Amino acid sequence: MLRIRLVEEAIAARYVDQEMRCPVHLSVGQEATAVGVCAPLRPEDKVYSTHRSHAHYLAKGGDLKAMLAEIYGKAAGCCGGRGGSMHLFDTSVGMELSVPIVGSSIPLATGAALAMKQRGEDNVAVVIIGDAAIEEGVFHESMNFAELNKLPVIYVCENNLFSIYTSLNQRQPDRPITDLAEAHGVASGQADGNDIEAVCSTMAAAVGRAREGGGPSFLVFETYRWFEHCGPNMDNHLGYRTEQEFENWKGRDPVAAARAALIQSGAGDEAALATLADDLSREIDAAFEFAKNAPLPGPDAAVQHVYA
Amino acid sequence: MSMPDTSNSMAGDGEPLANARLINYADAIREGLATAMENDPSVFLMGEGIADPASFFGTTKGLLDQFGAARAVEMPIAENGMVGVAIGAALSGQRPVISLHRVEFALLAIEQIVNNAAKSHYVSNGRHKVPLVIRMIVGRGWGQGPEHSQSLESIFGHFPGLKVMMPTMPMDAKGMLIAAIEDDSPVISIEHRWLHYSEGHVPEGHYVTALDGPAVLRPGGDVTIVGTSYMNLEALRAAEVLAEVGCEVELIDLRMVRPLNMAPILESVGRTGRLLTVDSSWAAFGTGAEVCAQVAEHAFSALKAPPRRMALANHPTPSSRGMVPGFYPDSISIAQAVGELCGLSASDVGAVVSKLVEMNGDQPIDTPNAYFKGPF
Ligand SMILES: Cc1ncc(C[n+]2csc(CCOP(=O)(O)OP(=O)(O)O)c2C)c(N)n1
Predict the structure, then answer these.
(1) How many CA atoms lie within 13 A of A264 on its CB side?
(2) Beta carbon pairs, A and B, within 8 Å
(3) How far does residue B136's CA lie from ligand 1's centre (Å)?
(4) pLDDT tens-place values along chain B, 376 residues long
């Protein structure tokens, strides 16, 4: 979580240099969902993500240098510079795809689960989506199919309450989101998305069920994004959310909460955590230097890979 | 055929156009929407983020306050449903205008657009009408990448029953939008993000620009260029510099992909004998392909050289700026193509290219050049 936080803060700080010439959607404030969802997964389990994919990519074990190089548009990027920050993937660790079209990856994860079942594997497919994606028809089409076929797929909704600047209550009636799954006969779960332990245990239960042939699950984790929807700045001044709401959520900082829990449990102390932060900062600085200095791909590269 | 944007043109009340205010394309659209809504209570807006502070790149700014939430309807993220709902409302006598932040999001709604919007009038033997406008915005630059930057007009242009417009000039952006809203058929409007910044003389109040097709942006006798959307601005610049070496380009802004009015193009090619199309999408099965095919069918004997298409390179749009050089036609590649078509000397082409390179300066490839702001 701390690593993701520091990476995202570094992206925000360096974005003004105008060298990362692609849109970035940061998930500072949402780290516990990404990490809690990916922690119970094996490398062979497949994760599908959205436009807000940095945290998912890192939590699943993606290569930091390759991610930053992608955001800088470099040939060494995880998509060779083709995709930018909304298309992060690293199949070697099961970070399968990120797709910026809302809802677009939901059937892909469902299809991966179908393939796993057909091949007799006990892996699971996970798709992490925002609260807006459940408004798309394909969410319902996929859940219906997954339940019908008892597929090992987990639909994870990172409910950060906003779709760009439009709040949940402007887009959906007041009802438990988990009811959507229940109506399809899909098992559902819900937890505080800023509590790493709660996310992790809810996810682990769903993963266990899926591995044993119990079928799909739909999990909802409430959390909050601190930065603007897209870009490195704060945007509270626009008035689409109140300063009070923002401060309340900031008070529930998942990284600070995890840190406090570690110290309290005796699993870590101030000195160890400070050393960790220093090590991470060095790693991150080195990865940025790598990305900045890596060569841009040339136009010749653009014509490759149109067909397999 | 509509006339070029010159001082002879008249704005709404017979006022010379050059006296009209200079405003940008995004504001022209906002005015068009507001004017249509003021004129007709059945006109309403619908979209994802219609109420948000960014207001569709400024094009719907203030309309929620002015007209209220019943006429500026916020939508869940559900494109196929949204378009279908709008078609249902249109069939029932309302005039919805939908805005999509990116043309790609319309792909989720293609079923409703193609099966219901395009055909309802036809299958009902003319009884049903679908007075619907769907604005779709083409992104470009700043690493928008493969799913936020495509220009998909030829997909929609394929279907009888849809009208597809691509205004280039701010005056057309307002006048054609009002015409589209007042039209009883479904109209797809493709807006290029880089045009939003461009300024031009735009009359105040209500006026319509007929959805009748091409407009000459610059008259000339040596070669006909048919451009769409933002590509017209690149072609215009090339044409200005080509004129300095005596090569006169007739630049035609296609404006309507469907219905495609070929008459002004055939007339122009009849005079120049040479045709170049410059597309904002891919060449194959594209708008330029259709224009070239029709010229070959109907004006073959006028051609002094094979017609030529310029369009995006044959691959998806890469995010990295490193891969973008050469991907989009630009003033330089357009000038070079004209040079080949017209048999200009190497030294003339060289002079034109050096001038264009100098004019472009070291402008980054992924942001709009100040030249393209106009005024046009
Ligand atoms: C099909 C489609 N419609 C609209 C958009 C524009 N869009 C990009 S991100 C976004 C908000 C999505 O919100 P949510 O799914 O809750 O994820 P969050 O950004 O909050 O993480 C929207 C509407 C899109 N990318 N794809």
Answers:
(1) 6
(2) 136
(3) 16
(4) 344 443 344 555 556 677 789 999 999 999 999 999 999 999 999 999 998 899 999 999 999 999 999 999 999 999 999 999 999 999 999 999 999 999 999 999 999 999 999 999 999 999 999 999 999 999 999 999 999 999 999 999 999 999 999 999 999 999 999 999 999 999 999 999 999 999 999 999 999 999 999 999 999 999 999 999 999 999 999 999 999 999 999 999 999 999 999 999 999 999 999 999 999 999 999 999 999 999 999 999 999 999 999 999 999 999 999 999 999 999 999 999 999 999 999 999 999 999 999 999 999 999 999 999 999 9
Q: Measured from the CA of A27, which atom of ligand 1 is nearest?
A: 21
Strands laid side by side in the B133-138 sheet: B72-74, B43-47, B95-100, B133-138, B187-192, B163-165, B256-258
Query: Residue A49: CB within 6 Å of ligand 1?
Result: no
- How far is C-alpha A83 from the geometric centre of its chain's CA atoms? 17
In A, minimum Cα distance to B107 occurs at: A101
Averaged pLDDT for residues A224-241:
97
Percent above pLDDT 90 for chain A: 100
Cα-based distances in Å from B241 to A301, B215, B273, B311: 32, 21, 21, 21
Q: Between the CA atoms of B119, B125, B126 and B132, what dihedral angle is there, to the nearest 10 degrees?
A: -20
Element (H, E) at B28: helix B25-39
Question: B210 Cβ partners below 8 Å, 6+ apart?
Answer: B2, B179
The whole-model pTM stands at 0.95
**Given CB atoms, is A141 within the 8 Å cutoff of chain B?**
no
The H-assigned helical ranges of B208-345 are 231-243, 263-272, 287-298, 331-342
Ligand 1 site-directed mutation target among B77, B102, B110, B148, most atoms within 8 Å of CB? B77
| Distance between Cα B221 and ligand 1 center (Å) | 49
Q: Among A62, A69, A65, which residue's Cα sits nearest to residue A84?
A: A69
Edge-first strand listing for the sheet containing B308-312: B215-218, B249-253, B223-227, B275-282, B308-312
Q: Provide, as residue numbers in chain A, all residues whose Cβ is less than 8 Å from the Cβ of B324.
A: 299, 302
E strand or H helix at B80:
helix B79-91
Instruction: Report the nearest atom of ligand 1 relative to the CA of A101.
Output: 26
Residues on chain A touching B142 (C-beta within 8 angstroms): 21-23
Helices A31-38, A196-211: crossing angle, 10 deg rounding? 30
Q: Fill in the DSSP letter of residue B106.
A: G
- Residue A75 Cα, gap to closest chain B Cα (Å): 9
Q: Please report residues of A whose CB lies closer than 8 A to that of B100.
A: none
pLDDT of residue B20: 86
A133 Cβ closer than 6 Å to some ligand 1 atom: yes
Task: Mutate one of B74, B319, B367 to test the A interface: name it (highest A CB count within 10 A).
Answer: B319
Alpha carbon of B69 to ligand 1 centroid (Å): 22
Q: What are phi and psi of A74, to 5 degrees?
A: -95, 155
Contact B153/A at CB under 8 A = no
Judged by DSSP in three states, B134 sits in: strand
What is residue B10's predicted lDDT score, i.e. its pLDDT? 52
